[in-house]
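User: Hi! Is it possible to get a structure for several chains at once, not just one? Here's what I have:
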Amino acid sequence: MRISKEEIEHIASLARLYLSEEEKELFGSQLSSILDYMEKLNELDTKDIEPTSHVLPLSNVMRDDTLGYSIPRSDALMNAPDRTDKFYRVPKIIK
Amino acid sequence: MKDVDIINVLKYEAVIGLEVHAQMLTDTKIFCSCSTKFGSEPDTQTCPVCIGMPGALPVLNKKALEFIIKTGLTMNCKISPYSRFARKNYFYPDLPKGYQITQYELPICEHGYVEIAVDGEIKRIGIIRIHMEEDAGKTIHEGEGNYSLVDLNRAGVPLMEIVSEPDIRSPREAMEYMKKLRTILRYLGVCDGNMEQGSLRCDANVSVRPAEQKEFGVKTEIKNLNSFKFVEKALEYEIKRQVKILEEGGKIKQETRLWNSERGITESMRTKEEAHDYRYFPEPDLVPIIVDQKWIDEIQASLPELPDIKRKRFVSEYGLAEYDADLLTSERPLADWYEEAVRLGGQPKAVSNWIMVELMRLLNEENKSIEGCTLKPKQLVDMFKLIEKGTISGKIAKTVFEEMYKTGKDAEDIVRDKGLEQISDEAAIDKAIDDVIAMHPKEVERFRAGEEKLIGFFVGQVMKLTKGKANPKMVNELLKKKLS
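Assistant: Yes, the chains can be modeled jointly so their relative placement is included. Here is the combined structure:
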């Protein structure tokens, strides 16, 4: 299965990655071979098998609506590349 | 934009669908135990789960699920026995994980409807789905130069998204639908419906088509409709804009537009080509939700009486006019206030009148809702008793009522402290009438010459002289006797 250059560029832009021409070529062929490998699964007949979205045999794990602890603001902001004393700070982006 | 000829607009039919986001009134966030309180100091209500620290795992808030099932049942939805979460992937600074946990192909509620009344006609608006998701944080762009600030307190607050069928045909219907959702959500106590604070938000999909055409036209999506008025105004504008383009032989571009409330127009935000590719996939960090019938039945049994049913009951049980019943049931606390006053012995129509006229006026003056009202139903009923006993006149009662509302004092104390007792003493009223007659000889002459409508003038003068305290019935009788 061959991934087109346009698809690579689209995926890269969704992930905010900027790839050189060589990288587009390299990752394109690597992704293609990964997909080829996964293609093998299509050889199995899965007609009677329910799709799995979760590997654990669990459902309805829930918590009560009870207030717990939040972390101090200084801790929350500690790892941010940029911040003020109260906020995270980011380059200006308008949606 | 120049107004499009009304005839042109009438040749077209608008097709509208609304996506409404409602913040749920839980104490804690949807996947962690941080507070959802509005207006706190920025970035003080967060934890590793809601700011997306590696390895932190979300756990669903049971109350949020209960709230959405409540809402689904009320809006006549089918509750899915099996439901799960999905990841919606995109980058934005208010979304710490780089994806939003939402629901995609298996939402919790589907295929419902609500009914709205437009010009006396009942219309059914279909609900495609109601699903749960987490809210994003808040970005502040103003006044920060080349930077934006991010407050993640709101990140992870539970939202429900209510998606309507494209059943809405006019801006007016859209507004009525929106109001109906708000009333229901507030009745259920699942959302406070505060549009200014953003607890209730709305995006609209709108297209137009020639009246005889079956297929839908190309639609645009309008964002940022944060009041009922804006829903109506933005749709009115957008419909005209689309009709104008079509009339001039142009084509509608499928795009997202933003309502600019200051300029009263919609502006292009992004076109379909730039539209996001969200790459949804099932959320591996959360297990599926299985809702059994027993729980659904329990929730069904716990639902409060809803506005439509309450309104009909108010008409049949209390003999109220449709309009009055509609207003009194628009908010559950108001309906409760009304019924409490009636239960305590207030005459149903009198209670309704006093609420609709006096209480609403006073509340509106202060921009308050009934929840912020300190006046108790019992105080109104006690005031009624004073009117019945003849202690105060209906006119003075208005003064007493306002005083009760403002000070919280009981009617009896106000009447005593301010000396507002009605004057029913014949001698005192006689004296006032004599004075009025002496002061207005010309009017007396005209009255006696047959100008009988002047009786109103004399009553007014007597009331003025007695500071409104004279018993009006006695004033009328005595005046007629003296003047004839």
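The beta strands of chain A are 62-63, 88-91. The interface with chain B takes residues 10, 14, 16, 53-54, 56, 58-71, 73, 76-77, 82, 84, 86-95 of chain A (CB under 8 Å).

User: Great, thank you!
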